[in-house]
Amino acid sequence: MKTLIMAxxxxxxxxxxxxxxxxxxxxxxxxxxxxxxAATSQKQRKTPTTKPPKRPFPTPTISPTANEDDPSxxxxxxxxIGFGSEEMEAVILVDILRRAGAEVTLASxxxxxxxxxxxxxxxVADISISDCSDQIFDxxxxxxxxxxxxxxxxxxxxxxxxxxxxxxxxxYGAICAAPAVTLLPWGLLRRKQTTCHPAFIDKLPTFWAVKxxxxxxxxxxxxxxxxxxxxxxxxxxxxxxxxxxxxxxRDSLLMNDVDDSHKxxxxxxxxxxxxxxxxxxxxxxNGCEGIEVVTVIDILRRAKADVVVASxxxxxxxxxxxxxxxVADKLxxxxxxxxxxxxxxxxxxxxAERLQKSRVLKKLxxxxxxxxxxxxxxxxxxxxxxKQGLLKDKKAASHDSVVSKETDVxxxxxxxxxxxxxxxxxxxxxxDFGLAIVRKLFGHARARSVAEGLVFEYPQVLKRRPSxxxxxxxxxxxxx
Length: 480
Known about the structure:
Domain DJ-1/PfpI: 75-237, 279-439
Organism: Cinchona calisaya
Number of strands: 21
Radius of gyration: 21 Å
Mean pLDDT: 83
Distance between the termini: 40 Å
Structural class: alpha/beta
Strand content: 15-25%
Keywords: Repeat
Protein name: DJ-1/PfpI domain-containing protein
């Protein structure tokens, strides 16, 4: 097995169900792989006593080069959230727009800044929506999710701000349920071609409804769901900063056009299926990639896995990449009291360095391997496993800046499964990574169902390659 080296990374089914806007049952939405916020869950969780860490907007990794008005002026973006907002959509929007150089404000429409998202992830907003009501934004972008979209719809301040945004011909957008649940009742879709999540498409005006993943109609941009969030955010970057910046962001996120047959590779196949609900541990630290954290949480909870997010810091509040504050479920020492079927390390170069320093996590990983249980790492955190000798005789994937040219990796694969080890290359393959875990734990049908809820393309037929194939043990083909 060849070595990994640590280096500095760049900051980087169709649904025929017709839900009502006002009375959507939890059962109906769970069947569509949505997560409905339970009103009681917020009370059951302990409110952190520590104050959120200060989080200045990060230094842009890319200088804007295509601002029609003033190239030196920082663009201002508002991303509002409420109870039940979709965490993947919210975090991906904030993360990518900040990478592009925008000053993004994450604003809560609730009375408190801490908001529990649709999949149970807890996010801490920058400010309350009332504190930015008099500001002018270059873009207002609404994440979806239920009942998050309804919470946004019912916020009078946000309605007034977004309506003014549209009247003054400034950019605004919405994704997933938000176009139909939020913008439509506000009258902001008139004479606009619009797309949204397939579960809500029948609610849009028939003549103006389109089924494209992302739709730009004048100042309005709409998109379909968590699985289209990357392209939604990149489209907004393009409109704010131009083609050059949008392309640079795509490249930095490793958003390459990869054929399905090369996205995922598996070697030394073993069964991951369990006779109980899988218990998953996701350790987090300051500097972890927020997109990777929320994507894995969201996807595995949609699949009905028991996911525990544990902080290796002294506080359960984590300052993730791009200034996003996440709230873990517990501290790592508390999580270590029980055995987990799967441990997944999120990436982020500074986050990986802090995870590496945790003695508790180091002990857990060694016990995980010794017990023949499953573990894995994303992006730069693969180096943690290498340093602990957990990649011996294994194929692994990681970010190009972390892996030496001699590393034993499958050529071109974004996600690699080797026995009970799973790794990936970076942010753009986080969804593929999460779905690969679901397929191994629950089967192909469950993974496909989760992918459909995300509006994410997933291979329909899995075929095994001949055992003598050196390039891959599997390839994927679509059924016709």
